[in-house]
Structures are given as structure tokens and as C-alpha cells.
Design brief:
Helix content: 25-40%
Number of helices: 12
Radius of gyration: 19 Å
Distance between the termini: 9 Å
CATH class of the largest domain: Alpha Beta
Number of strands: 9
Length: 331
């Protein structure tokens, strides 16, 4: 692979953009008992003899959905998707016990071994990009390639931008709603204030905080506006799991050894082929993180989508990701 590939852009290519592949149904699914109180749900779709890939959803605390299957050509890929601990169809729902980045990395390895995969391509967006990078750093010999969208390095700078001071200046109306459950004396640490409520014994307290936390992300996720917010953000059970787990990880700074840990470890994986697809107007995970990652990873192809925000379903993001999976399929 060219170690200094050109910077790519999809600006002006709306007429030639790729779309998603057709609907796919899993040909296999099951739960893995982790042995420490969790059962992790997974599904497999595409070609049983195809090139293996694993899909890491966002959040933390999100869940897989049928659209995620469609970024991959079902004739060429054997695509594995799973719900991370505490969310989706994994059990128990919304649990924070034994739920850290390192637990999730161990689950990916359990899944790889269960399915008899030697090496696979790792696909992740937003928090999924964080987990993909952390997994690759821990197990570089198990990663054939990385396809990342909405890069998030889980640094203090990124967390402050979105949850304390930064994105609030672009979305003052949505920010006002996000502030509402938190009394003024606690607003100098919004993550900490929400964490106290999302771990409160009362479900009603948790539900109120979860609704506000989830709405803030939903309101900022796409340049198409709040109407592009996934409907699941409005479901109480999903919102509680999503908000609790996400805030748990952010309160604990991703369980990394130090701030900026991922970039400090990039020497371990800089040789791995990679594709980065990033919306120019991504407010949730701004372009700066992807830019820094590319500087530390010359082998990666870098696609800045000029008319997109954070959502994976925006046309330019779909185009970039489908082109990336097609390219990775023939490596």
C-alpha cells in the first residue's frame, strides 16, 4: 500500500456516490457467555466463505442494526456484528459491572476464536473507531485492516468539546435542553453530574437523565437536523442503556492508562492498511481527531466528506464507507 496516499474528498461527487448493498439476513446468531456475568449477542451474515470482518457499533452503549450489514458486499464478505456488553440484545441490559474497554476487547477475541477467524478487517464508527483502534493496538496480528468513520480518540479535549464547552456554541437551543436536568452549581462537570443521575437507584431519575443525554447526541448527529435522529434514541430502554454505558466510559476516560493513549500507541499498528471516512461538519467527533490520527498513520487512506456530519447514514459517508469495504475486500 502507498504509505503517503493523497488526501481524498467526495466534494462534488454527489452524482457518482455509492449506495448501500441490499438487505441481508444473518445466517447465524448466538450468545457468548463471557464467564463474568455477561452474555454477548452476535450475528453473522454474507458469504460463509467470504473475507471476515467484524463491525463495532458506537456509543458506548449503542447497538447493532440491519443497516450496518449493508456496508459490505454480501458476495465477498463474511460480516460479524455484535452488541457490546449491556446493550442491544446482550444481557443483562444496561449493566455497568465488568464493562470496560478491555472487557470488550476480550469479547472480540472470544468471538474471533468462536468463529475460527485468523485475522479480520475491523469496521467501526464513532466509539466503534475508538474500540477498533484499541483492539488493533492490543492484537495487531489479528487485524487485516481498519475501516473507521467519525474518528474518536476519547481524549479530554474531545469530551470537553462535546459535553462541556464547544459544541454548545453551535447548538445553544439543544444545549439548553441538555442543561435542564442539572442544577447550576453542578454544571462545571456535566459528565460527572449526569453520571450521578444515570447511576441513581431511582429508575425515574435515570430515565429523565438518559432522555436528555440521548437527545443531545441525537440533535447534533447530522447536518440534516433532528429529523435524522435515529428513532431508537426516543425509546426509554435504549436511552437508559445508551446513556448509562456511554457516561460510564466517559467518566472513566475510556479506561485508558493516560490521556492521548491511542495516539501514543500508533507505532504498533501504523503498518496496518486503513481507511478513514470523516464528515467535515461532524460536531460529535470533530475532524481534528481524524487529522491527528492520519498524521500518525501514513498508510491510511483519508476521505473528508465535505457535506456530512457524524451520522453513518449521510450519503457521502455511505459512499466513503462502501468504497472502503470494496477496496479492503481485494487486499
Amino acid at each position: 500500500m502507498d504509505r503517503n496516499p493523497p488526501l481524498l474528498s467526495t466534494q462534488g461527487q454527489a452524482g457518482t456516490r455509492r449506495g448501500l448493498y441490499g438487505e441481508q439476513e444473518p445466517y447465524d446468531f448466538d450468545w457468548i457467555d463471557t464467564g463474568d456475568g455477561h452474555e454477548v449477542f452476535y450475528e453473522v451474515c454474507g458469504n460463509p466463505k467470504g473475507k471476515p470482518a467484524v463491525v463495532l457499533h458506537g456509543g458506548p452503549g449503542g447497538a447493532i442494526n440491519p443497516t450496518m450489514r449493508r456496508f459490505f458486499d454480501p458476495k465477498r464478505w463474511r460480516t460479524v456484528l455484535f452488541d457490546q456488553r449491556g446493550c442491544g440484545r446482550s444481557r443483562p441490559n444496561a449493566s455497568l459491572e465488568n464493562n470496560t474497554t478491555w472487557d470488550l476487547i476480550a469479547d472480540i477475541e472470544r468471538l474471533r476464536e468462536r468463529l475460527g477467524v485468523e485475522k479480520w478487517t475491523v469496521f467501526g464508527g464513532s466509539w466503534g473507531s475508538t474500540l477498533a483502534l484499541a483492539y488493533a493496538i492490543a492484537h495487531p496480528d489479528r487485524v487485516a485492516g481498519l475501516i473507521l468513520r467519525g474518528v474518536f480518540l476519547l481524549t479530554q479535549r474531545e469530551l470537553r468539546w462535546f459535553y462541556q464547552d464547544g459544541a454548545s456554541m453551535l447548538f445553544p437551543d439543544a444545549w439548553e435542553r441538555f442543561l435542564q436536568p442539572i442544577p447550576a452549581p453542578e454544571r462545571d462537570d456535566m459528565i460527572g453530574a449526569y453520571y450521578r443521575r444515570l447511576t441513581h437507584p431511582s429508575r425515574s431519575v435515570r430515565a429523565e437523565a438518559a432522555a436528555a443525554w440521548s437527545q443531545w447526541e441525537g440533535d447534533t448527529i447530522s447536518i440534516r437536523g433532528p429529523e435524522a435522529r435515529p428513532a431508537k434514541f426516543n425509546e426509554a430502554d435504549f436511552a437508559i442503556a445508551f446513556a448509562r454505558i456511554e457516561c460510564h466510559y466517559f467518566q472513566n476516560r475510556g479506561f485508558f492508562e493516560h490521556d492521548g493513549w491511542i495516539l501514543s500507541q500508533m507505532g504498533r499498528i501504523a503498518h496496518i492498511p486503513g481507511w478513514i471516512v470523516q464528515g467535515r461538519f461532524d460536531v460529535v467527533t470533530p475532524l481534528e481527531a481524524a487529522w491527528k490520527l492520519k498524521a500518525a498513520w501514513p498508510a491510511a487512506k483519508f476521505d473528508i466528506v465535505w457535506d456530512a456530519g457524524h451520522a453513518s447514514t449521510e450519503p457521502g459517508i455511505i459512499d466513503g464507507l462502501v468504497r472502503a469495504t470494496d477496496a479492503a475486500a481485494v487486499l
